[in-house]
Design goal:
alpha/beta; four-stranded parallel sheet; eight-stranded mixed sheet; Rossmann fold
Length: 363
């Protein structure tokens, strides 16, 4: 039997960071994909009695706060190419600050039929106890497991997040600590899907239904991609004209969290500021102060407004409370329930729904 094939895509982040000449300037992502993988000692990871054949791709070299949906669309195309070249799985490394966001997007958009497993590091390679190599090794073991390929093929688990040997579902995972090497936890009270132990994947849980969203497909580069702004050089503005800002690549969606005695006056400015939608992280099951209902309803008449909960776990309520500002009232005024998605993930889902021209998905 031939050796399994693994493709590694690197985007930068702590796992790729090294100190600069001036120690006071901190670390920056400068380490490439092949060097990141070397710390994982993948040549000793024997599957089918052979170590994997590994290929590498440096898709970006940025901090995680600078990763964009355009990067992730490019990652989908890279995963498709890797699958066409015979890869059995993909590992994507990046910074941890937006690792949960990238995993969520790729879980919905990866249609290559092979899994992509995302990971990173909390300690950069220059520190004692750097965790990047161990995380990449566990991610590689997960990506190359035949069960993961089966789950990716029917879109039940097209992407996963692996960290500190635990395997997380992208629809619920969150970064829950700023510095801990075990920074990620599963939301919704469900725990991780599994874990890696002794170079074996233990996978007692898996999603039961496909996460494929009809109408959501990253276009190939041979097809004009409307997600990429026009790169042509605009005419120079005259002295009395302001310099135009480049058009955003994707629709802009705001997230507003509701607080005690909050008037939510900011929602009135969203459409004028160019936002195409809003996610409202309400208190409890998805509630706002009674005094704000009129302005929230007015915004929902202009742009899509998704109602989430600021708690970060559980599902948005839909038919329990009927007082003004509660979920029955708000959904009756046109707001859309986020279901089990937290506000951050609901924002990404709404951006993609607007981009692809579909309704907000039920996930």
């Amino acid at each position: 039997m031939s050796a399994p094939r693994l493709h590694i895509i690197a985007l930068g982040g702590t796992i790729a960071s090294a100190p600069q000449t001036d120690a006071a300037s901190g670390v920056m992502p400068t380490i490439g994909a092949e060097q990141i993988a070397a710390a994982a000692q993948l040549d000793t990871l024997t599957l089918e009695d052979e170590p994997p054949l590994v290929t590498f791709e440096q898709l970006a070299q940025v901090g995680s706060g600078s990763i964009t949906l355009t990067h992730l669309f490019d990652a989908v195309r890279s995963i498709r190419r890797a699958a066409a070249d015979g890869a059995d799985g993909v590992v994507l490394t990046q910074g941890t600050d937006t690792l949960e966001d990238s995993a969520f997007v790729l879980a919905l958009l990866n249609d290559a039929g092979i899994p992509v497993v995302l990971t990173g590091a909390m300690r950069n390679p220059s520190l004692p106890g750097a965790d990047g190599g161990a995380n990449v090794r566990s991610a590689a073991r997960t990506a190359l497991d035949p069960r993961m390929k089966e789950l990716a093929a029917d879109r039940r688990l097209a992407a996963a997040l692996v960290f500190a040997d635990e395997v997380f579902d992208p629809l619920s995972v969150t970064k829950a600590h700023t510095t801990s090497v075990a920074a990620f936890q599963a939301g919704l009270g469900q725990g991780p899907l599994g874990w890696v132990s002794e170079d074996r994947l233990v996978l007692p849980h898996a999603p039961a239904a496909s996460r494929a969203v009809p109408g959501w497909s990253v276009p190939d580069l041979s097809v004009p991609d409307q997600s990429v702004p026009d790169q042509s050089v605009p005419e120079a503005p005259t002295s009395d004209q302001p310099t135009p800002e480049p058009a955003p690549a994707f629709p802009r969606v705001a997230v507003l969290e509701v607080g005690l005695d909050d008037d939510l006056s900011l929602v009135e400015e969203l459409a004028e500021a160019g936002y195409a939608g809003c996610v409202l992280a309400g208190v409890g099951g998805g509630h706002v102060p009674q005094s704000t209902v009129a302005r929230v309803a007015a915004v929902a008449a202009e742009v899509p407004v998704v109602l989430a909960s600021r708690t970060g776990a559980g599902a948005t309520l839909e038919r329990t409370y009927g007082y003004p500002g509660a979920e029955i009232d708000l959904l009756g005024r046109g707001l859309v329930p986020a279901g089990t998605l937290n506000a951050r993930k609901a924002r990404l889902a709404l951006i993609l729904a607007l981009h692809f021209g579909t309704d907000f998905p039920v996930l």
